[in-house]
Amino acid sequence: MSIRFELIVFFLVISVIPLSAVIYASYDYSKDAIRGSVMTNLVVATENTGRAIDDWMASRKEDIRIISTIAGSTEKEKLAGYLYTFENEHQGVYEEFFLLDKNGNITFSTLNRTGNAGKEPYFTETLRGNLYISDVSLSSVTGLPEIIITNPIKRNDTITGVLGARVSMENLYTVIESIDIGKLGEVFIVNNKGELIFHENRSKILLEKINNNLAVKEVTYEKRGIGEYINYNGEDVLGSYYWLPLYRWGLIVEENKNEAYAEVLSLGRLIVGISSIAVFCVILLAFFISKRLTKPIDSLKNGAHSLVSGHFKTIPISSNNEIGELTEIFNQTAKELLDIRKKLETKIEIANKDLEEKNRELIIANEELKKLDSLKSDFISLVSHELKTPLSAIRTSAEFLESEEVKDSNVEKEMLENIILSTDRLTRLINNILDLSKIEAGKMEFHFEQVNFHEIAKVALENIRPLALKKNITISIEIPDNLSPVLGDREKLIIVLNNLIGNALKFTQNEGRILLSAKDDQDGIMVRVEDTGIGIENDKLVKIFDKFYQVDSTSRRKIGGSGLGLSISSGIIKAHGSEIYVESEPGAGSNFFFVLKKFDKR
Ligand code: ADP
């Protein structure tokens, strides 16, 4: 789970839960308050209506009482006039005034009715001396709901008759309907039997009975109160009931519960709306705050990733808080790490280069080894070849001498010479090998001294001369008399000259020429051995100084040799601090030259 998500959840938890609790508590409180006020208003409206009914009825009773007092002291004619006038003045209230004698006979009626009402309860009850109010009934005269109020007419405290008034209920209904009871639903009055005696729908009056209704039940038990219930129409209502004991009427005011509590509902809706907006605002706020908080953390995370991948860029510090400090520390640490990394990389690079160098050296060493290996095989084949030849010559000559068939002393001599030559050849070969191995091992001993070049040239030429004569090759010498003495090992330099002049002889055809020259040079004494021989191909010039290398090493080769002469000579001249060079062209002869140090007398 990301920090951002956790922060949003955290904000929601710390804000929405208490917010919801506060909103719910205030909603609950307001709901109760609104319900309380709705109920109070309903009760007040009911009581006002009850009082209005009481007032209206009291006025009627008062009218009847006053008129009956007047009737006791007024003559009939005058009274009749008064009653007509009174009825006209209270148009719609009184339908009829009538007078009854002590027997119940109608002595006067504003409706000109006649007859006897002696058995009517309003007559019998009034004769007892009290004002009487009948139940609401449908008038036998008008067919509309009415009550009859009667009062005794007294003269000197003696009942002389009865004054009756037929009172139209319509007037009271109008009064009830004109009372402001707010946006209330329904007002109706029942009698103690539960029969409707007032309803806005007049056709229901006295024709319908309401039983299955809490308010009706309660009011018929002569109670007052308020309650929530399902009314006779099946509607969920809030109803207030009010018992009017004087007339045994129950007044009921009902209001549709949804309508009554509309304010509670709208309050609920308002609270849901406010809560939603608040939650939305909290989420929005949480979103922004979490973004602000997690942005530097994200930068740190990206920085860490870039550090790992090696493309680190300094993270900008966006705040002065702990995260800002952390970013600064991270930047520093990253820089140090990068420095260490760079140093390590440099070290690795150097180590790699060393390794590469070592590897190259190893490859070279390996090649050397391979070369050595092939040299070894060359050596073995040479040894087998070069040793075999003189050995077989020796063997053949010896075998020949051993046999007693040949007794020619000349042949015997030739055979013995053969043996001696072959033995010399073997000795030379072995000496050459020994010399070369000494040179290579750095174990050849050199005795540097002042050497007169004339001297060593002379020795070398003496060794060679017989063969030169044999091939009729002219050997010339060009060495100035005043040639400076050289610094060198006499014996070793003679070996070099022997080798070079020997090669020149070997590889020059009969009648050819050889020139040995030496002259003072800027750097020392320049020695040259030139011939007019077969020459060497350009690509072979470097190889001829290798051990055992021979330009023509095939078995067809007639000229002897081991391929060691130039290697030994080159080793000796190197030990003198110089090098042998060669210039040659196939068919045009060869020119070997090197420089020797002059002997310094000081
Ligand atoms: P080798 O015993 O065969 O003479 P070297 O080491 O002296 O051995 O010479 C190596 C090879 O160099 C010879 O075999 C030959 O092919 C070539 N070489 C040396 N000197 C000459 C020369 N003066 N003219 C032609 N080829 C020569």
Main attributes of the structure:
alpha+beta; 602 residues; five-stranded antiparallel beta sheet; rod-shaped; six-stranded antiparallel beta sheet; Helix Hairpins; binds adenosine-5'-diphosphate; Heat Shock Protein 90; single chain; Beta-Lactamase
Structure description:
Among the domains are: 72-171, 2-Layer Sandwich (Beta-Lactamase), CATH 3.30.450.20; 317-434, Signal transduction histidine kinase, dimerisation/phosphotransfer (DHp) domain (Helix Hairpins, Orthogonal Bundle); 449-597, Heat Shock Protein 90 (2-Layer Sandwich). Helices cover 53% and strands 18% of the residues. It is built from twelve helices and 18 strands. Strands 1, 2, 3, 4, 5 and 6 form a six-stranded antiparallel β-sheet that branches. It has a five-stranded antiparallel β-sheet with strand order 8-7-11-10-9, with helices on both faces. It starts with a helix and ends in a 6-residue tail after the last strand. The relative contact order is 0.06. The site of adenosine-5'-diphosphate has 21 residues, from α11 and α12.
